[in-house]
Amino acid sequence: MTASSHLADDIAVAPVDAVALEARAAELSTRSIKKDAKRRGLELAISMTDLTTLEGMDSPGKVAALCGKAMRPAPGLPSVAAVCVYPDLVAQATKLLAGSSVAVASVATGFPSGRTDLALKLSETRRCVEDGADEIDMVIDRGAFLSGDFAKVFDEIAAVKEACDYAHLKVILETGELATYDNVRLASEIAMRAGGDFIKTSTGKVSPASTMPVVLLMLEAVRDFYFDTGKLIGVKAAGGIKNSKQALRYLAMVNETVGDHWLTPSRFRFGASSLLNDLLMQLARLDSGTYQRPDDFSKD
Amino acid sequence: MRVPVKKTYKLFVGGKFPRSESGRTFEPADAPGTNVARASRKDLRDAIVAARAAQSGWAGRTGYNRGQILYRLAEMIETHAASLVDEIRACSRKSQAAAEREVEASIDLVTWYAGLPDKLQQLLGAQNEVSGPFFNFSTVEPSGVLCAAAPDAPSLLGALAVSVPLIAGGNTVVLLVSEASPLVGLALGELLAVSDVPGGTLNLLAGQRDELLPEMAKHRDVNGLLFAGTPDPELGAASADSVKRVRWADLPERDWSKLDKLCTLHWARPFVEVKTLWHPKAP
Questions:
Q1: Which fold, B25-280?
Q2: What residues make up the domain containing A66?
């Protein structure tokens, strides 16, 4: 047993009050954000978006279109935070995004299931970083986690963090497979203590993906970790966030749970593909006063 | 003494019966004492989203199947004829006999349009003769999502006359029912819900024309408009920005009950698009 494994065994979390958590998340969904605040919120959400394409049929052409849109979603609007692709497309995305503020994020470690051995996970991570990825989105081994082998989960995260070198590490918990809020809280704790820079809800391949109560719970974990250690960890809500109304609810939740310090792309992200178009449509509606047509906005 | 359970007149959007998101109601001019959900701009937006979501599924059905479903709607109207007569009389001064005639005409209108969907290609499409080794076909496709506004009277027949021709062509529709007499128009939702018409194909709103028609004209995700009434150039101008096709059903009042005026291709034709295909002939 390694030293870090002992750390994992020491991690204990208080039970989560599921009723109160869901009630609080529901209450945070009722904030009314209109006019100028809405515009600012929508622009902030754009700047926090990891524009994502993770399909088996992804092509260099699609990534090129995505990178163009990521850098300049529409005239006068900010760039998105990052473009998130599969490892084989990292080199191309890096080339296309060179000189821009948009980061290249890559999923790694046997995404989306995480069911390969550690050596493969590490070599995949190193390869992504060598190809220019600024951020690595790793998946935890849910099989190990659910069978109680927390030390293995911890050690893998720590090893991948080391392999990341200068790149930021986002740890995907895949909360849809963790079954209970207590497990989400525990997995968050393990990911933060093992060295994750971000904790992320989902791969987008499992339903349910990101939900308000789960993200609220992760924000609370991040807040408590900050009080405990002084370290600021980011949160990424990914999967299932399709429209502006949902995005604004998440922003209100971030603001009222962890505060302004987290209302920046370096601490909160949306992992999404269709969300960006809805944000653009709502901003166009604010400008013109007219409801927009999805066909007027590029699909990729 | 038993207290009667009165019906709440709600909207019909995406196969469900919501109240207005605004919480507003209004008392129709012809049915004082009745509170009817008054649709807002956001209800219209939601209805258009529902219609857009339903559009490809509805258009993707065979014309034959669309015809079967419309015929089923006619069956449902026939079955519920007595309650529709009561609802017409509750918001108009029509006699029992006149209300019955309106319901019968409504059934006949829906039946007529039930026969149309699998014949539109033959009636409006063509195989064109061209100079060259090609087949050349003109095929008919639906315009997409349409908004319609019914005349104030007749409230049932008018509502069907401006919406059924459009859905027969494979379009999905958001219909604003009669402003003065909305009861029977909204009751139509109860029949649509049990007649195999997929949710979102025909959505029913009640409310004020002055409030909702300009929004229908401006909304960019609407492909065409069919409004009962005299043409309003301002609405035409508002529609121009998103290149909508606009038609006015500007009939004299007496013609709204004449089936030979209502059951013609004139109503369906503007809301289909003709696509011409060239295909090489085998040598």
A1: Aldehyde Dehydrogenase; Chain A, domain 1 (3.40.605)
A2: 3-288
Concatenate the DSSP letters of all residues of A260-286 into one string: GGGSSTTTEEEEESSHHHHHHHHHHHH
Residues of chain A contacting B242 with CB distance shorter than 8 Å = 293
Of B107, B103, B106, B104, nearest to B85 by C-alpha is B103
Task: Judge contact between A176 and A202, C-beta under 8 A.
Answer: yes
> What pLDDT is recorded for position A1?
44
Chain A: residue whose CA lies nearest to B42: A291
Lowest average pLDDT, out of A120-129, A206-215, A290-299, B224-233, goes to: A290-299
Q: Is residue A293 part of a domain?
A: no
Length of chain B: 283
Spell out which residues of chain A touch residue B219, defining contact as CB-CB under 8 Å.
290-291
Q: Any residues with CB less than 8 A from the CB of B57 and at least 6 apart, and which?
A: B198
Residue B50 CB contacts under 8 Å (≥ 6 apart), including other chains: B13, B14, B15, B199, B200, B203
CA B31, CA B17: separation in Å to the nearest integer? 20
CATH number for the domain harbouring residue A150: 3.20.20.70
- Dist CA A280 CA A260 (whole Å): 24
Q: Is A208 on the interface with B (CB under 8 A)?
A: no
Please tell me if residue A290 touches chain B, with a CB cutoff of 8 Å. yes
The string of pLDDT tens digits covering residues B114-173 is: 999 999 999 999 999 999 999 999 999 999 999 999 999 899 999 999 999 999 999 999
**Alpha carbon of B9: minimum distance to chain A alpha carbons (Å):** 27
